[in-house]
Design a protein that fits this description.
about 120 residues; alpha+beta; three-stranded antiparallel β-sheet; globular
């Protein structure tokens, strides 16, 4: 999951300011994981809230721009990662020199018809 998440976050990471901090880098990858995990409209609202209120101050954007970023990221996921149905959990980011290290746990979402559409996470 970590390598996939790093690849998925790459377009966002490439937009970071040259002098970005480790906190900004981690927040960007965590945001990518939040968007990766979107499965409902309420989760889109959560992602908008994260990007507009919880990102480090200089990376925050207005709600309309947040929605545009999320739409692009969801389109990117659909085009390039459509066969990957995992959720990204326990995301951590570290830098070792020029290398970016991402750690994440991937779990598979499965609908259980007997539970009226509830989602089970399979570890």
């Amino acid at each position: 999951m970590a390598e996939t998440l790093r690849d998925y976050a790459r377009p966002l990471i490439s937009q970071l300011p040259r002098d970005h901090t480790d906190e900004e880098l981690k927040a960007t990858v965590v945001f990518a994981a939040i968007v990766w995990n979107v499965g409902s409209f309420s989760e889109v609202r959560d992602a908008v809230g994260y990007l507009s209120r919880e990102m480090p101050p200089r990376l925050r954007v207005e709600r309309a721009r947040a929605l545009a970023v999320i739409r692009r990221m969801l389109t990117w996921k659909d085009r390039c990662f459509a066969d990957d149905d995992r959720c990204a959990l326990a995301v951590d980011v570290a830098r070792k020199g020029p290398e970016l290290r991402v750690r994440a746990i991937g779990v598979v979402r499965r609908l259980d018809p007997s539970l009226r559409g509830q989602v089970h996470l399979l570890l």
